[in-house]
Amino acid sequence: MIARIMASELLKIRRKMIWFLIMLGPAGVIGLQAVNFGLRYDYLMKRYAQNPWGGLIGEVAVLTVPTLFIGLTIIASMNAGIEHQMNAWKQTLALPVTKTQVFLGKFLLTLLLLGCSATLLAVGMVGLGGALGLDLTAVPYSKVLMMSYFPYLAIIPFISLQVWLSITMHNQAIPLVIGFAGTVFSMFSLRFGDWMPYKWPYLQNAADNPLYSIALGMLGGVVVLVAGMLEFVRKDVR
Question: For residue 121, how many other CB atoms are within 10 A of its CB?
Fold first, then answer.
């Protein structure tokens, strides 16, 4: 049943701007770093002479998390907005599906789309490195994949949260404002302890182990997802 719901959700966004946004996020990050390296090429190459690929990945990482926060906010809103704009929630729920399945379908669709963005970011990093003249035979693929997918996994609580808010609120300005405010707040979250969820996508913690942040993120994501589904099931959708 979930497979059919996902197929239906993908059909709904077939001609929507969502696909453009999926490409815009990683393209924007890579494009900004291309400008950064283009303007400061000699300085940055000298600075990262011992580890040019590590330097490039580090520079890209600076923009990755804020872009993820903005992306998940907009995508979750656009996914739920399809039903809100057409007042189609009753029609959707009249189908032989449960509210839980509908909610889970929206969550999985958002998760899938952001996963596509993470993949494009990994490809873009390697492409940018090649364009900058870095040795393509020395690409640290493990680090490239870690920087692309680890923040994505650690940010799952906020994917769950934004899907929850976007589905249950007809006025999409509210979840959008909350998401954008969270993006700004996340930039200062490193000042807090490891208990702060906004800090988890940055993969920095007292244990100096990114897997710790990922574990917290995935566990937190499940908790928020379940809470959102329970609230949606009880809610009278109009």
Answer: 25
Tell me the per-residue pLDDT of 127-171, one tens digit each, with 9 for 90 and over: 999 999 999 988 999 999 999 999 999 999 999 999 999 998 888
pLDDT in tens, 55-82: 999 999 999 999 999 999 999 998 887 7
Alpha carbon distance 1, 122 (integer Å):
32
Residues 6+ away with beta carbon under 8 Å from 182: 69, 73, 158, 198
Instruction: Record the tokens describing residue 74, joined without a space.
Output: 């907009």
Residue 169 or 107, more confident:
107
Q: 20 burial class (0-12, 13-18, 19+ CB within 10 angstroms)?
A: exposed
Residue 222's CB is within 10 A of a number of other CB atoms, namely 13
**Whether 68 contacts 152, CB under 8 Å:** yes
pTM of the entire predicted model: 0.92
C-alpha to C-alpha distance for 32 and 205, rounded to whole angstroms: 27
Please, where are the H alpha helices in the chain?
Answer: 2-12, 18-39, 41-47, 52-86, 89-93, 99-131, 141-154, 156-168, 173-186, 210-234
Mean pLDDT of the chain: 90
- How far apart CA 146 and CA 144 sit, in angstroms, is 5
